[in-house]
Amino acid sequence: MNNKLLKLTTASITGMILLFTSAAPVMATEHAVAGFVHDKTGIEIPPTSEDESVTSLSSNDILVPGFNNIGIADVDTNLLVREKPSEDGKILGKMPKNSGCEIIEPDNNGWTKVQSGKVTGYVKSEYLIIGQEATKLALTVANYIAVFNGEGNLRVRKDPSISDDNIIDFIAPGEEILVLDPLVVTYGEEINKWVKVSLDGDDSETGTVGYVAKKYVDLSYKLPQAYTMQELLLGPGISSRRANIVNFARKFLGYRYVWGGSGSYRLKNNKGVDCSGFAQAVFAEFGYSLPRTSREQAKKGTSIKASQLKAGDLVFYGSKSYINHVAIYIGNGKIIHASNKRDGIKISNVYYRTPVKCVRIIND
Description:
About 15% of the residues lie in helices and about 35% in strands. The chain is mainly beta and about 375 residues long. The protein folds into 2 domains: about 1-230, no CATH class; about 235-360, endopeptidase domain like (from Nostoc punctiforme) (endopeptidase fold (from Nostoc punctiforme)), CATH 3.90.1720.10. A 6-stranded antiparallel beta sheet has the order 1-15-9-12-13-14, with no helix packed on it. A hairpin with a 2-residue loop joins strand 5 (about 100-110) and strand 6 (about 110-115). The model is unreliable at about 1-40 and about 45-60 (pLDDT under 50).
């Protein structure tokens, strides 16, 4: 495999993006039961085929695939998308840092009309990078991700091999995983091509490292996209205390992730927190004392079923014997969590991984 497939920097120099796909049939050995919903987010940058040679075109000579006129949010946290070009305009959605959009109408009196994901509206032009600067930046900040392209659930393994005791998690169809290495080859195995991935977790700065069979994922680079306000809404019948906790947590959407980071000061000043540090700081604001790690936090409160989740409950991820990630449920099948150093604090589908425990801290 050429080195051009291994680093985004190469694609930045050439102005091209590379995509790996697999048309191989699904094998039951790498799937569990079906039932999870899809949660694709982000704007994909479709690349050339694996066998196509990269040209010498600079990024000044081409458009970013998927965009006619790209804009990128130049903010530390979120860029508000409004219904009309005014500070009084209704907020329709939020574009996190480095998220991409299509510019529909250029700057007019300080406002630009854009479309990002399912959100179309106006943003302040001063917080939008456009033109060739945006093109170059897109090829640099896009995340390298693997998307599960099959049915059922994809097994994430501790090692690049098939055995009964090395499964560490399951990924739902359409879900995205950060890629650490696009190709790991093993020999003498039924499946010998793997992708090294990172799952959200507090094990290390890179999260929990695992491997997925390459034939079951599509690899590409993607830019984040706007969140709709619907994605940020609470479920019905939520107490004011739960609503306050969730609304407080959502204020930090797009803030930094730093492994080992904790404390209200770090959270509020965007110095960076990890998953358990985020949950701890949010609940501390309302008088709840949580332990420092996700494993210890999972021992607190009352265990509940996933079907009983209310906004403000905690959701834990990992394996049956080991918890390494925590998120706050915000209603409507969504969680908010300090995900990883590339995405920061973000919103995800509650079933983006298989929850191993749900806990109720708020008794109301």
